[in-house]
Amino acid sequence: MAGFESLKALVIDDSRHIQTLVSEVLKAVGMDVRECGGGEAGLGIVKTWKPDVILVDFEMRPMTGADFTRALRRFEKIEGRRTPVLMMTAHGDQKHVLEARDAGVDGLMAKPLSTGAILGRVQFVLEKAGGPPGSRPGPSNML
Description:
Elements: E1 8-12, H1 16-28, E2 32-36, H2 39-48, E3 53-57, H3 65-79, E4 85-89, H4 94-103, E5 107-110, H5 115-129
Parallel strand pairs: 1-2, 1-3, 3-4, 4-5
Helix pairs in contact: 2-3, 3-4
């Protein structure tokens, strides 16, 4: 897919299988991908490596995807930037959608995942965010 070759993505999921699936799809279109199994590790990566997009699982322990996103947004406020966050979830009910939105997530992607869904949703949140990678101000509408 054109335009993904110079981009960096961080994949955070406590399922090694999902990490590998999502990472391989993104690598296949030329993205530089890092992955980890939890929110704390993800925050550590973000502090030293600036991804253009982050894909995070909703249901993780001890830090959920919403917890990760809230912590990321606090960190980014200090840094003066905003990275698009795409949340992967098996929960599409209103409670989970609102929690994700309120945490600062830019888009949701329903599980089970497919190659088309992964690439389409990544492209969606990147286009919606606008501006150069790593310097996107303000929240966007995820729905």
